[in-house]
Predict the structure.
Amino acid sequence: MNVTRVPVEVPTRAPTGTTNAYVVGTDSAVLVDPAARTDALDDAVAGRDVEHVAVTHTHPDHVGAVAHYADALDATTWARYGRTDLFERATAVEPDRTYREGDAVAGLDVLDTPGHAVDHVAFRADDAVLCGDLAVAAGSVVVGHPEGDLRAYLTALRRLHAMHPRVLHPGHGPTIEDPRETCERLIAHRLDRERAVLAAVRDGADTVPAITDRAYEKDVSDVRDLAEATVHAHVQKLAHERRVRWVDGRVHPVE
C-alpha cells in the first residue's frame, strides 16, 4: 500500500519540531494526522483520491488541520469509538463515523494502542504500521499523568512487537526500519525508569518532585513538567501493582 509521509511544522514538544502526516493508498486514500495545513501536504493530497481523514490520537500536534482537509476534500472523518467527545473538542468537527479494534478504514486495519493517550490507535497497512506516538526511531515517548497509562503503553508495545511488522511509520521523526528492536528498546527504557523510580522511593523519596530528582541522572529542568508527569505515571503503575503505597500524596515502599 502506498504510504507518503509529510513532516508538518507545528508547535510540539517532540524534538523534531514536526508531526508526520500520512497519505495512504491511491484510490479512496486516507489522510492520517493532518497536524496543520502546509503547501507540502496540499501537494500530497492533490494527486490522490483522498476520501477519509483519521487520526492516531487527538493531541493538538496531530489534529490541527482535520477540519480544513475534511472540508476541502469532502472527506469522511473518523474517530475512536467511545472517544468522539475528545475528537470533537480537539478538532471542532463532529466525526462522520467511528472505529474500534478490528475495524478497517479504506483498507487500514485499526489497532487499539492506548497508553500515550487514552484514544490512541495505530493503523496497519499491509506489512507496515502507522504507529502514531507509540514508537519513535530515537529517544522515547512521553507517557505521563494524567492521560498516560504505562501498563497500557507497555502492552501496546508488546503487541506491536509480536505483530512483527516490516516497518513503522511514526508520528514524529524518520521511518522505523527495525520495529522489533525499537519496541524492545522502548520497553527496556520504561522498565529502567521504573527501577529508578522504585529505587528512589526505597531510598526515602516520597513525593513526585523528590522522586523525579533522584530517578533522573541528567538535568531535566527544561522538561521538568514532562519528567514529573512521567514519574507520576510510573508511581501509579507501581501502586496498582502493590509495589508501593500512595497515601495522602506520599509514596511509601511495600516491603
User: Anything to note?
Assistant: The helical segments are 39-46, 60-63, 66-73, 84-91, 150-163, 179-202, 208-215, 224-240. DSSP finds eight helices and 13 strands in the chain. Residues 101 and 135 are 19 Å apart (CA to CA). The two ends are 53 Å apart (CA to CA).
